Amino acid sequence: MYLETNDVVKQYANHLALDRVSIQVPEGTVYGLLGPNGAGKTTLIRVITRITAPDSGEVRINGRLSKAEDVFNIGYMPEERGLYKKMKVGEQAMYLAQLRGLSKKEAHRELMIWFKRFEIMDWYNRKVEELSKGMQQKVQFISTVIHNPDLLIFDEPFSGFDPVNTDIVKKEMLRLKEEGKTIILSTHNMESVEELCDNIALIHRSKVVLQGKVFDIRKDHRTHIFKFRIVGDRFDFEHPSFQVLSIEPYHEFADLRLQKTDDTPNNELAKLIFDRYEVVSYDEELPTMNDVFIQTVTR
């Protein structure tokens, strides 16, 4: 499913939640929706899922205007979790699956597959209130994907998960992407953005302030810092093309961080070092998405 929003505006009383927000989410990709708290991410998700209507602008799916029946082809896991604590896990999951249009037989078949995959079959007849937060998260994840929608939206899906279960969910997201699903991931976890997302949009103060492919954005924010690992523990070479940021000993090596100070081509900069030292490794240090996020928002 290819999704786009065009100039979406949403006003609540005296608060402008979305100010002409336009994004393009390619089919079969993981799209990161980033921004500080209160930036407008959740409002945009609610517009996409038709929970609320925009004041102006449009949502288009596969090139046409979004329709009411499109919600049956969307799976949405909101940040605010909501399971009925007194219900049994299996009953709860069956109820949610049938709400999403599955027959009882279809729901049972799919739930058996997912409960086995997530290794929670032993909890099928236990009450929801007996589950840990992470286990409840698994049930909600299953309920989000159970009807096999083409568009999946996850709002902070990793909160409450330990590292092992976070890894399980990440792998499931990538598997769903390989199946051709389109995924929108709203998260503050920048490490997950770099690991999972193909493209991102950064929303700040109700506007899209940054959008594009993750790797391209990191390259665009490069600070021309290069890392060299050389043999030996000394580095006493100076040149007007760079400044030394740090020298750290590492066993029989030294790790250098140099920042280019002029327009010298990268190959020539590297050659300056290679001609004088035995280089074990060499790489450009691109900023992380966390660096980009902080730089963009604070600026």
Textual characterization of the structure:
The protein is an alpha/beta fold and about 300 residues long. The chain has two domains: about 5-215, 3-Layer(aba) Sandwich (Rossmann fold); about 220-299, Alpha-Beta Plaits (2-Layer Sandwich), CATH 3.30.70. Helix content is about 30%, strand content about 30%. The chain has a six-stranded mixed beta sheet, sandwiched between helices. It has a four-stranded antiparallel beta sheet with strand order 2-1-4-5, covered by helices on one side. Helix 2 (about 90-100) packs across helix 3 and helix 2 (about 90-100) packs parallel to helix 4. The longest helix has 16 residues, at about 165-180. The model has no long low-confidence stretch (mean pLDDT about 90).
Features:
about 300 residues; globular; alpha/beta; four-stranded antiparallel β-sheet; 9 helices; Rossmann fold; Alpha-Beta Plaits; six-stranded mixed β-sheet
Query: What is the third-level CATH name, the topology of the largest domain?
Result: Rossmann fold
Helix content: 25-40%
Q: Would you count the extended β strands for me?
A: 14
Q: Which residue ranges are poorly predicted, with pLDDT under 50 across at least 5 consecutive positions?
A: none
Q: Can you say what the CATH homologous superfamily of the largest domain is?
A: P-loop containing nucleotide triphosphate hydrolases
Average pLDDT, rounded to a whole number, is: 92
Biggest sheet layout: 6 strands, mixed
Strand residue content: 25-35%
The CATH architecture of the largest domain can be given as 3-Layer(aba) Sandwich
Structural class: alpha/beta
Whole-Å distance between the termini? 34 Å
Q: Using only CA atoms, what is the Rg?
A: 24 Å
Dominant shape: globular
CATH class assignment of the largest domain: Alpha Beta
Query: How many domain units?
Result: 2
In which order are the strands of the major sheet placed? 6-7-8-3-9-10
Element order, helices and strands? EEEHEEEHHHEHEHEEHEEEHEH
Number of helices: 9
